[in-house]
Every structure is written in C-alpha cells, then in structure tokens.
Design a protein that fits this description.
Elements: H1 2-10, H2 32-49, H3 51-54, H4 59-79, H5 84-117, H6 120-130, H7 135-149, H8 155-169, H9 174-193, H10 200-207, H11 220-235, H12 257-276, H13 282-304, H14 313-318, H15 322-341, H16 343-355, H17 357-367, H18 373-381, H19 389-401, H20 411-419, H21 426-430, H22 433-451
Helix pairs in contact: 2-4, 2-15, 4-15, 5-12, 5-13, 5-15, 6-8, 7-8, 7-9, 7-11, 8-9, 8-20, 9-11, 9-19, 10-18, 11-22, 12-13, 15-18, 16-17, 17-19, 19-22
Length: about 450
C-alpha cells in the first residue's frame, strides 16, 4: 500500500503524457490542486480499510471523496480553458460505466436475495450440518462448494453461506473454524476469478470487452491451482476428528425455490446471449431476467400467499447490498476523476512501461491484497492498455485471487472475521500467507503453461 501510494504521489511531478481515450485528460498532475485530490482519495480509502474498527460503512467516505475530486477537476478544467462540454464527456463516461454495472449487479443481488428467502442456501447448510461429516471431510466439501458457488454468486455471499456451516459444526473447535475460514476465503476468491459473474472485477473486464465470456473459463485450471495448493497444505493441519452430533432439524425449500434457481440460470444465459448474439450490453439481458422473476413472483403470490408464502420482489431489491453498490459508485467516480486529471496515465507509464506488462499485472494482484480489487481493476481498465488476451486474463486472475493473501484483502475475509467470534483473525490468516502465496505463484505459472 505504501509503495503504491508513494509511486502515485511521486508521479505527480512528472510532465503530462498523452492518453488514447475517448476524452482528453487535463495533464495537471503536478498542480497543488491535483495533488490535493490524491490525498483526499488516500484519506477516504483509509476509512474504507478501517471499516472493521470504525463501523463507518465503506460507501460513505468514497462518495464524499468522489464529489470533492470532481469538484476540483472541474475547477482545474475551467482554469485550463477546457469547455464544459468536454468535461461533461469525461464525466458521462464514468456515469455510463457505473450505470451498466450497477444495473447488472442489482439484478444478480436480487436473485441471490430471492433464493435466500426461498431457503435455497439455508437448506444446503442444514443438509451439510446434519450429514455428520468429519472435520477433514468438511474442510474439503466446504472449500469445493465455495469455489463453485462463488462462480455464480459473489464471493461475499458464498463465503457467508458456507462460513455459517463451518461455524455450526466447529463451534467447539476454534482451530477448525480458523482453517475452515481461511480455506473459504481462498476458495471464494479463486472461484470468482474464472467466471464473468464471479466477481465485480471479472464483470468489469467482460463488459469492457477486453475478454469475451467463454475466454474466462481458460482461467479455470489456474484458479483451481490457486485454491488447491494452499488447501492441500492446510489439510494436514485440520483436526482429524469428528464433530459433535447435531440435533438440528431439516430445513425445507419454500414453494418456487427450484424455479427461481432455474430462472437465475436462464437470466445468465439471456445476458450472455444479448452480449454475444445481439451485441447489446449484458445488463439488458439481466433486466429481462429480472422481469421474469417479477412475473413468477406474482404467480407465487397467487398460489401460495394464503399459506403465508407471499413473495414481494421489491423486498428483494430493497435488501440488495446497497452499501456495495454505492461504494462502487464512489470508486468509479473517484478513480475516474483522478484519471481525468491525469494520474492514471502516469501510473500506467510507471507500472506497465517501466516494469513490463507481466510484472505489472502480477504486482496488481499483490496490491489488491491490501487495496480492494475494485478500484485497482477500474484503474487498470481506464489506463487504455494495449494488452493481448493472455495479459488481460493474467490481470483478471491476479486481481481476483491476490486478495486472498491477507484477511483484509477481500470482502469475504473481512466478513468472516466479523462472523468468527475472534476464532479467525488477521494474524491467524497471516500465518498461512506463505501457503496462499505459493498458490498465487502456482496459478500464474499454470496460466503461463496453458494460455501463454
């Protein structure tokens, strides 16, 4: 983090560089006002990183920072003689990027909430708890489920769902909970890296059309290696014992649960078809899928509301992770404002021109272990880099799995620290960072062998 910020600050005194973008950047990184915007972003992100301790939602500081940064960018543009029309083009570029991703994510979150309300995930959790697997069996099962689940749901949802299973069966065994949570964090991040739906960063790369939908699956084996290497090392540290018998009763699916799952899969197919066949933005296909859920929700109400099984689609929309959606807004506009002033082109020159694409893309993953991968990837996408498919897949992989090296490197890790009752902490995760780093290196090497 400190190295990244030092590079960003030191670049502010370099001369301006040309940028091949849809709009002309200001190239005013050496001005006092420009440096001030960087400091504002650093302070705001400091609050984001301290969310666990301050309990200040991460969206609040970055939205404020975005507003301040763009206000200063507007003043700089005016002082440089840039027309209001040209400045609006730069601003609307960010608005277009955010709007498309926000609608896509909103539909995905609504479906996940609908499946949660229909007891899909709770039934899975109940089944796992009642099967009375041993700790080592559960370690493997929960990791594999998380890996594949995070490919269709976000890594936070997958981690929280499977984390509840680990807590339920390992309440009396802190060591199993700690290792189980580390395993889940690694699996969630690795599973999200090979699917366009698995992580916001992969979704951004797909919608920016740097990687086509089916090309992401070339990362399946590297992602599996990224999960499998640390899991294999940690497996022998898992207690070879049997948890206490559970008296938990079975949880049954509510009416329409299977159909909602089917509609979600059809919605994914629709989004891909809109993009690949009709050349329309994927979010349009997702919105069509949302309408299907709305209509089917009406049918559930007609058939089952008298049995206390009512389904309100707008409750599911209301329960979406609005903090995440607003955080994403703040990130897009804060990073976009810094890019308009000229910082991203300078950072691109220092990283990609100075270090080379491969080294820079590997460094992006290391940076994402400390800084959330969303602003890191958004910055990379807005550098207008001339990279081939291999390099775009590499940075997608590293940005997705790099956050596993520290517990604070991903939303999954931060959420599980709060859920673990101090059984899983920053330092218990740090103990296994070398094993996770081995998986990180292994996944990059396998990606080179398969896709290089």
């Amino acid at each position: 983090m400190l190295r990244f910020l030092f590079v960003l600050l030191s670049l502010s005194v370099l001369p301006e560089m040309a940028m091949a973008a849809d709009f002309q950047t200001l190239g005013l990184t050496g001005t006092e006002r420009g440096i001030y915007t960087v400091l504002i972003f650093i302070i705001a992100y400091g609050f984001v990183m301290a969310e666990e301790f301050t309990h200040l939602r991460k969206s609040k500081p970055v939205i404020l920072a975005a507003g301040i940064i763009w206000a200063h960018a507007a003043v700089l543009a005016s002082e440089a003689g840039v027309s209001a029309k040209d400045m609006h083009e730069a601003f609307e570029y960010n608005l277009k990027e955010y709007g498309a991703l926000m609608l896509f994510l909103l539909v995905a979150m609504t479906y996940i909430n609908a499946m949660t309300e229909r007891n899909v995930f709770e039934a899975l959790r109940s089944w796992l708890v009642r099967k009375q697997f041993g700790y080592r069996q559960l370690f493997i099962i929960t990791g594999v489920i998380t890996f594949f689940l995070s490919a269709v749901a976000d890594n936070l949802t997958a981690a929280l769902l499977v984390g509840a299973v680990v807590m339920a069966v390992g309440a009396d065994n802190p060591k199993f909970v700690s290792l189980g949570f580390i395993n889940i964090v690694v699996a969630a991040n690795a599973g999200g890296a090979f699917s366009p739906f698995g992580d916001i960063t992969t979704l951004m790369v797909w919608q920016a059309e740097y990687v086509q939908f089916f090309d992401f699956f070339k990362l399946f084996i590297p992602s599996a290696v990224n999960y499998g290497v640390p899991a294999a090392i940690m497996y022998f540290a898992v207690p070879d014992e049997q948890p206490k018998a559970s008296s938990e009763e079975a949880v049954f699916l509510k009416p329409g649960a299977v159909q909602v799952c089917g509609l979600f899969l059809l919605t994914i197919v629709t989004a891909v078809s809109f993009h690949q066949i009709l050349h329309l933005p994927p979010f349009m296909g997702m919105m069509v899928g949302l309408s299907a859920l709305m209509i089917y929700g009406y049918r559930i109400n007609v058939l089952y509301s008298s049995q206390g099984q009512a389904f309100d689609i707008f409750d599911k929309v209301r329960e979406a992770e609005w903090d995440t959606l607003f955080f994403f807004f703040g990130v897009v506009f804060a990073v976009g404002g810094l890019g308009y002033i000229g910082y991203l082109e300078l950072l691109s020159g220092a990283l990609y021109d100075g270090l080379g694409q491969t080294t820079a893309n590997i460094l992006v993953g290391i940076i994402s272990a400390i800084v959330d991968n969303i602003p890191v990837m958004f910055a990379v996408l807005n550098m207008n880099l001339d990279m081939d498919l291999y390099q775009w897949l590499l940075v997608t992989l590293t940005a997705g799995v790099g956050g596993s090296m520290l517990s604070v490197g991903s939303a999954a890790g931060v959420a599980l620290m709060g859920q673990s009752n101090h059984k899983y902490t920053f330092f218990t995760h740090l103990k296994w960072t070398p094993a996770i780093a081995a998986g990180y290196v292994g996944s990059i090497f396998v990606h080179y062998l398969i896709n290089g």
